[in-house]
Design brief:
Number of strands: 6
Structural class: alpha+beta
Number of domains: 1
Number of helices: 3
CATH topology: Nuclear Transport Factor 2, Chain: A
Strand content: 25-35%
CATH class: Alpha Beta
Largest sheet: 6 strands, mixed
CATH architecture: Roll
Protein name: DUF4348 domain-containing protein
Shape: globular
């Protein structure tokens, strides 16, 4: 099952069907500038949220602001598309085998969950915003080559 989840991440990295492309006014997220401290999420409210959103499909759908904006770096700049609810597949944000994960420190009610594998040039960042005391997935940034 974890191989399936890894393939889902790679599938998202390779692209969902774009509804709106060639909006190059957005810049690539520089993941090296983001701070991903090594801290224990077991006592952290965001860590509990990641576990719950991973375990419960209904809860996951309720905590995603569809359509999600997906940004992908291309040779021509950046392509922006939308991920609709009917194309979304349940994802395990808590633990993905074979891919490294880093979680940013909270900055202005935003946390980034970055999955990467330098050996295959995979880097996908899931952007979560806290709205009215609840975390929501609002954007996906795919910096994979």
């Amino acid at each position: 099952m974890s191989v399936h989840l890894c393939l889902c991440i790679i599938g998202l990295a390779m692209g969902c069907q774009p509804n709106n492309t060639s909006q190059s006014f957005h810049s690539k997220v520089d993941s090296s500038a983001l701070q991903y401290p090594k801290f224990d999420l077991s006592d952290d409210e965001f860590g509990s949220f990641l576990k719950k959103i991973s375990d419960d499909t209904v809860y996951q759908f309720s905590r995603i602001k569809f359509p999600i904006v997906k940004k992908k770096l291309t040779e021509d700049g950046e392509e922006e598309s939308k991920v609709e609810s009917y194309t979304w597949e349940h994802m395990n944000f808590d633990n993905v085998e074979g891919v490294q994960r880093e979680i940013s420190a909270p900055v202005e009610l935003v946390r980034n969950v970055r999955y990467f594998d330098p050996e295959i040039a995979l880097e996908v960042i899931y952007v979560f915003h806290e709205l009215d005391g609840k975390w929501f997935l609002v954007e996906i940034v795919d910096n994979s080559n």
